[in-house]
Amino acid sequence: MKSSRFTYFKRLFLFCMLIGFIPVIALGYFSYAKSSQLLLDKAYRGDREFVEQTQLRIEQKLKMVDNAQVQLINSSLVIDAMEQELGREDYQSYDKLMQSLYRLQLYEYGLTDVYLVNFEKNWILSSGGKEPLRDSGLNAVFMEYADRGKPFFWSLLRSPLVNEAAPRLWNMASVKTIPINTVHPLGLLVAVLPSQEIGKMIPKDSESGDMFVLDDRYRIIAARNSEWIGQDLSGEPNMAAIRQAEAEAGQFQSDDDKYGITFRKSAYNGWTYISKTNISDITKESKAIGWVTLTICLIVLLLVLAASLVGTRRLYSPIRKLYELVPAPDMRGSSAKRDELYWIEKNVHTLMGKESRMREQAQNFFAHRLLQGATRAQEIAARLESGELSDWKRMRVLCIRIDTLEGTNYTERDRDLLMFAINNMAGEIVPRKIRLNPIVLGDFQATILGDHHEPAEDLKHEAREWAEQIQRSVDEYLHLKISAGISSPFPKWTDAPRGFEEAKEALSYSVRLGRQSVLFLEDIHLEVVDSPVTYPQQIVQELFDHIKLLEEERCFELLEEFLAFITRKAISQQEFQMLLIRLLADLMRFAQEQGGNLYDMVPQDNKSVAGEILALKSAREIASWLQSTIVRPLMIFIDQRREMVHTKISDQMLAIIHQEYDGPLTLESCAAKLNYHPEYISRVFRKETGFAFSDYLSRHRLQIAKQLLLETNMTITEISEKLLYNKPQNFIRYFRKLEGITPKQYRELSRTKKQDEPEVRQTAGENQ
């Protein structure tokens, strides 16, 4: 294997497992959750029913006690007793009242005691008999009941209140005022019901949790566990939720989610009936269901795992075979997320890219051979039959060439890259359905255009539009000026080479028509007329004259004038080129007349001068080329040749002066000896030496005179006669003018210096 890491196999295996695992796990979870919720709802529903039944049972008994109290209070016996002292004289009323109180304490009601209180007469009747109210231990309790201002209520009461040594029990006192429904009672009828009696009405064997009853002050008045009775739960957090609840009944979970609380509020006496159930007790049964569900799910998951492994191997088998066919990938530095499909896809894309590039190269190669005439008719027919070539009715060749690189940021080294960029632009702009692959042939970019339209003008119009669009794009992105030449239409693919030559021929006319042109060969041929071609000989002759005068700017103007003259003529490109060749021949002849050879002056660079001028693309380029390549070197040659002639004339004149200074030498005699005009040699001599002929001759004779004064004993008169001075005074005057002293003084000073030099040397020797 190429790699031990089968990423896609792992992912496929994981995917198959997830397909099986997720439904099984979800089904198990939801079945367990649903069963648990059903059990919890069932328990809550049972708690609600249990609390409601308990409330009804307790309130039924309380209402029985309430009714018995009402009947007794409304009896004439009690009404009359409120006005009696119940002394000895009232023993009959006393006996009847005691019997009535005993009847209330029947087993059916469960009352432990009944108190009849008279506040005005200050007495209390109970099962223990009569006693003064003020002396009773219950006096404070009964007075507090009377001050509540309620005609009826239940109150938590601990008894006995008199004998503190006896065990104290919690009771509920049913208090009613006498008369009924008054807030300023004359007396009270208090029935004492033990809390244990109420607790008996709460079932002991219920599946519900703890059950207890709270009074209006949230104190426990009855519960299964009698030890809870009397506890104040008003500060408990759960009581706050019950207190704030607006509904008469409800259920909620405690803050720690351990208990479910069911409550009912009684509109009869303000009591609250509460059931507190441990949730863990409720969910015991659901946990058993959960374990069964988990076991079943694990078994199913194992089966899914085995099926996933087998299925994954079968699904992965074709992928593995493909993966083994592709070249071994380089795993170094690759991401772990890259699997077998990634490498297969990458290699397929690579192969497709190579195939696409090879197809593109093959099409480009075919276009090259087609335009160069190297394609056989059988090959073209085969490509037409296979659909590789379109069976266009008419075709044209669009040929593009860069006008010039002058004034741009590019050099000749960038030309190939620029042609490649222009070729790409042509391929992007011209739709593929109407063209063959664009190619570059030397300095030309060529594209074969074609369509199925019958009128030839349609293709001509489209070709012009595409050419102009390419020009705009090249100008915008490359900042270059290009020209386009378009051939005449042709119907056969075998005529493509002729179309390419026609496009190049049309493009050659851009030299005369200017830059950034779009030229159709048929339009150019219509403009050419048969007329005699006039060669501008006068301009050429004037050009030669100014070359001799070394006036370069005027020469360039004359070259542009010459090109403007021949470009205005309606002549063919061949005739235009012949005029250029004739001008080149005239310049060569002129160079020979000046004593030189044009081919020696012009740098060849392994190129033909004629071929180079014919390859130029604009009249401006031709003028610049002629100026820099032909005219300027020719001027340099003429100037150098003149410098050599001037130097030779100057040297000859100097030799004559040095040899014939003591004769009757004049400028005319020198000119006669040298066969030049006196004015010409005078100008040449001044240019070369910086002195006029007469000045130089006088200075040379002065140097000879100084030499004769020092080396001979000739007199000044003899020297002046030898040097052809008319008078000695003229010699003396000229000598003094140049040297500042007379000839005699010059001789004396020179001899004195010669005599002093030995003495100076002798003194210097003695000092040493």
From TrEMBL:
Residues 393-523 form the GGDEF domain. It holds the Pfam family HTH_18. The keyword Transmembrane helix applies. GO terms for molecular function: DNA-binding transcription factor activity; sequence-specific DNA binding. The chain crosses the membrane at residues 12-32, 288-311. SMART domains: HTH_ARAC. Residues 651-749 form the HTH araC/xylS-type domain. Residues 748-760 have a biased composition (Basic and acidic residues). Residues 748-768 are annotated as: Disordered. The keyword DNA-binding applies. Keywords: DNA-binding, Membrane, Transcription, Transcription regulation, Transmembrane, Transmembrane helix. It comes from the Bacteria. This is Helix-turn-helix domain-containing protein. It comes from Paenibacillus thalictri. The lineage of its organism: Bacteria, Bacillati, Bacillota, Bacilli, Bacillales.
